[in-house]
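Box 3.1 A note on notation
Throughout this textbook, protein chains are presented in two layers. The first layer is the amino acid sequence; the second is a token string describing backbone geometry. Keep the layers aligned when reading.
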Amino acid sequence: MRRVPVVLGATVVALLLAGCSSNPLKRSRPDEFAVARQQPLIVPPDFGLVPPKAGEPATATADSRVQAQQALFGGPAPRSPVETQVLKDAGADRADPGARSVVGDPNTPVVDKGATTQTIINAPATTSGQEATVSTPK
């Protein structure tokens, strides 16, 4: 009676070991003696760069900012008729193109809403369902 669990356990262990990747009978390894060396890198014979001469200004190249914008965003894309109509309805032709540059300008007229509005905006949300109240300091 004691023999059956021992035989069954040995069979299970043998099956588990046979399925492992560490089985020495089924190893597929690369052949370390079949490794070939790659050819060294060489400079092509038509490589035509000339070192700059001392004291001369750098050659004129394209502006790197323009190249980066072209790479990121491409050129101007044609607008669809729907987009053109939406822009027309929104008044894009009357918009100030430099609006972002005048936002922080001290001469830009702004409306001061006061401390009460700031308190309302900064008030924590209530979970009790009651409306928020504001008390002004005296």
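The mean pLDDT is 77. Residues 3-19 form the longest helix (17 residues).
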